[in-house]
């Protein structure tokens, strides 16, 4: 199982333990499992800590071979994450218009806004939406920060959704390719 990759076992969000949701994904079967994967991916894009690779551990029995099954999981997860990212994008647009959120974050103990803006502005200026997709391709890295940082800087919902879909799918493909490479050596 991929639970070692996720922070859900150790992190509480608003005092609520979401490890049950990760376990639900890890045991998702059948076509209903795709709904669970979509919901998990949607939530991880804007609200849950952790990484999205856990969806690859879902033991879905869809009557498909290994690669077609993995392709369906990757597509459903990337679609859910793109939808969640668009929701985060909307929140970011609202936050941009609501100065008190940005002011509170700037005045917090850790100036996460300044750091993330600096990193994100550099990536956005150099690579644009392709930079967002590339940032989201990094396996094992919680990408909620990148999603929110880009959402405050950018304004195009469609390009944002496409970039998050491509980045999310790319991340899972890279993870699978890496796992396959390691397993072939063993």
TrEMBL record:
InterPro entries tied to this protein: VTT_dom
Record key words, sorted: Membrane, Transmembrane, Transmembrane helix
Membrane spanning stretches: 28-51, 72-91, 127-150, 157-177
Domain of life of the organism encoding this protein: Archaea
Domain (VTT): residue spans on this chain: 65-176
Protein's name according to its UniProt entry: SNARE associated Golgi protein
